[in-house]
Structures are given as structure tokens and as C-alpha cells.
Amino acid sequence: EIVMTQSPATLSVSPGERATLSCRASQSVSSNLAWYQQKPGQAPRLLIYAASTRATGIPARFSGSGSGTEFTLTISSLQSEDFAVYYCQQYNNWPLRNTFGQGTKLEIK
Amino acid sequence: EVQLVESGGGLVQPGRSLRLSCAASGFTFDDYAIHWVRQAPGKGLEWVSGISWNSGTVAYADSVKGRFTMSRDNAKNSLYLQMNSLRVEDTALYYCAKDISVTGRYYFDYWGQGTLVTVSS
To answer: Looking at residues B4-16, what average pLDDT do you find?
Structure first.
């Protein structure tokens, strides 16, 4: 079964700076990868699908890249509302067991 | 506006049962697969189960297989999760999440706010 590993577990960045979050799959998932943002007390929100396509209403400062086993979520200029936990999800393999990474907490430096 | 509203959570003793519901609105319910995803307190997301648009395909995580049963009633725009033989480790916030496809083999574009299940003696 596929294992999704996110790094780092916690990332400290100052507002206005760039944040780069990584997600690695134990085997190829092609471009079948999504990213979600979760703020405290809220449900996850879809940010990116197909590795690099922004979901409806997602600001252009969010971008995704990668394919196969290595993926990156980049937030180009951090805003205060971007500090949250981010999860990657593979949907290349069915059933969706082990579909999510363990998350990266993006915190204010 | 797409809405998913979970209900049925609560405090239950180990070994007992609980049935969760998810009421959907704002979209054509039987055009989409739906999933249950849970989140233990302070932990990450765990996919629990998924069901295709016509209930033809239902799949479960290994951690709940044989104990949980997912079903849907398209006439009522509702989704269910029957949870039997509950364990302490099933304690979590349970979300229902809408898939972007009929099959359930993709990602989730809308989530409910979750219902909390606490398993404790």
C-alpha cells in the first residue's frame, strides 16, 4: 500500500515570505494528488487537485507541482490566514487506504 | 450552496454501536460518491469509508472493516455509517466528504463540519 509522507512536520515562516511544503509517495501516484488546508476548528478545504490545478476560489499565491512520487505545495507570499495545517492526499490507488499524509503545520515565525 | 451536515455522534461505551448520518443538499446527491473521513483529537485525517453513487462499490479502511457499514439513501439525500463493536481508538471527529466523481476514486471538494464520536467507559 502507498504511504504518503509530508515534510517538515512543522514549518515556521514569517508573513510575506514563501513557504514550501513537501509530500512524498512511497510509489508513483502519477499526478493524482490533492492538497487541503485545515484551520483550527474547521473542516479541511480543497486547495489543489491533479497536483497543480487550483480549486475554485483559491488564491493564485497557492501553487502545486510535481508528479510521480515527489510533490510540492508553495505559498508565494504568506498571509495571516494561511497559517494552518496542510495535508496531501493521493487518489491514484483504490480503495483510498493511507490516502492522506500526516500533515504539515505552518506556523508564524 | 453545497451542504453536508453530519449527526449522530456522542459518547458510547466500548463494544457498543452508533449510527452516524450525513444530510446533503445543494447538489444532485446521486451524481456523486461520498466518503467518511475521521480525525482523532489532535491527529491527522484518516479515510474511513467510501461509497459510489449507486452503492455499487463500498470500501473500508482496514481499521474498520468488518465493524463499520456505510450506506446511502438517494431518495433522502442521506448517507449513513453504522458503527459496531466500537473501540476507544475509534474516538474522532467524523466528517462526510463529497467526491468529485460518481465512483469515489478521487478527491473531496466539499466537507461537512463533522460529528464527534467518543468511545469511553
So the answer is: 98
**Mean pLDDT of all residues in chain B?**
96
- Contact: A95, B60; criterion CB under 8 Å: yes
Query: How, if at all, do strands B78-83 and B115-119 pair?
Result: unpaired
CB atoms within 10 A of CB B47: 22
- Over residues A75-93, the pLDDT tens digits come to 999 999 999 999 999 999 8
Q: How far is CA B56 from CA A13, A107, B71, B80, in A?
A: 46, 43, 10, 15
The answer to whether A107 and A17 are in contact (CB under 8 A) is: no
Q: What is the pLDDT of residue A69?
A: 98
Name the residue among B35, B104, B111 with its Cβ closest to that of A43.
B111
Task: Provide the pLDDT confidence category of residue B48 given band limits of 50, 70 and 90.
Answer: very high
From the list B66, B64, B23, the residue with the least C-alpha distance to B47 is B64
Nearest CA in chain A to B6: A43
